[in-house]
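Entry 12.
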Amino acid sequence: MLSPELQITPVISNFSTLQYRNLAPQNSSSITTSVSSVVGSTDILISPQVFRMAKNRLEFTLTVPATAAVVNVVNANLLNIINRITLFDTATSAQWADISNFSQYATIITPAGTKFVDYSTKAAGFSNVGTATTAALAGVSACEDMTKCNSATLNITGNGVDDAIKNPFFSRKQFYISAAVNTAAVIQVSIPFDAIKLSVFDLDKLMFCPSNLMMSIFWSAASTYAWTATSAASPVTGAAALAVAPTISNINLALAVEMNTLLIKQTIDTVQEQTLTYPINYPTVTRTIIPTTTAHSYSINLNRSYGANLKYLATSFFPSGGAIPTILVHNRSDLGQYNTFINSIGIKSAAGFNSALSQDYMIANKAYLEGSVVQTVDNYHDAEWIHIDSFFGESPLADQKNEIAGLNLSLSQSVWSIQANFATTQPLSWVTVVGAVKYLTLSRDGSSVV
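Predicted 3D structure (tokens):
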């Protein structure tokens, strides 16, 4: 009998090998945004080829022009630059993704849905020094969707709280600020598709669609993610709307194309001769404006149009009216008791959650935020408030893949609702992401999503 050290079993592994190909937009690779309005779309055509969706990257250069006597401020969650993104089959019109209210979606879902180990290695860009002043300088220090603050102080949120003090060096960086007054802020952006969490974009599988795919990007009003301030130490001091709208240039999709010929053949043959079906996460983003009151409530009718299975609902609230610099602030505010329901039955608690006792974090949501960007109760209530109703079990949101799970929406309709009480009257914009599962089927005739 041979010693285990002498027993050798040959293994032949067939690894995926990627080559990146640059795809320019069908219209223009540069666009001038608007301070107050959504602009777009920028359309990028993906021809039939085998690629890995999650490995793709959207690249562009953001330039915020200089303004005398003030600094430029840019929200450091760079996904906020996008207002809406769609992906569809041009032959069958199958909608692979349609994420509206994308700024709010990215604000609440991306931190909660990103694993800390991935977040900790995100490109730090300019760290805590001022942004680049030219595209050439920005290019050598590109930024991803978000990054750590890398500081023990001065990570100021939109409502003036220093989040770095609560979690030194590791809290999510809130803003990029230009190097000096009367200086342009230029940021080279490289967004990995797997940053668009809990959607088809973070599906890390080989896929081949026999027909063309079209990705359309609508760009947010610049006031959503950028403004001016009178102090380089704080993005909220003297905050005001930009005088000149930013430009977005060098727009490019870096497509991760498979180069292993055997894997290419297997994927294409499966699609052409049989079918290839993937369960995909399909988020629908809803917004509800509640006028000035202390008691907030609304409901959503859940049915098959959202998907086959309901995996989660993720809810947060923003100041209504979109004032600078609090437009994307979603802290706890003075929220008191609240609860969520399915068909009038409390989902996780019969009595609800008392935020004054941190039950919103400790009982309602900590299990779903473990190992994510949202690491502490202080981060949670100061900058990252979210409520998650899970139908995938008591596991982290960041662990959820494109897989079948959740409440079956094909069998019956349900009504989800929320009731929340605040200490003071305030108008709020509530955002609820309905996270469901749909089925993407690829065949010789194209694709379908049901």
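Annotation: Residues 18-271 form a domain with the Hexon Major Viral Coat Protein; domain 3 fold (CATH 3.90.249). The longest helix spans residues 261-273.
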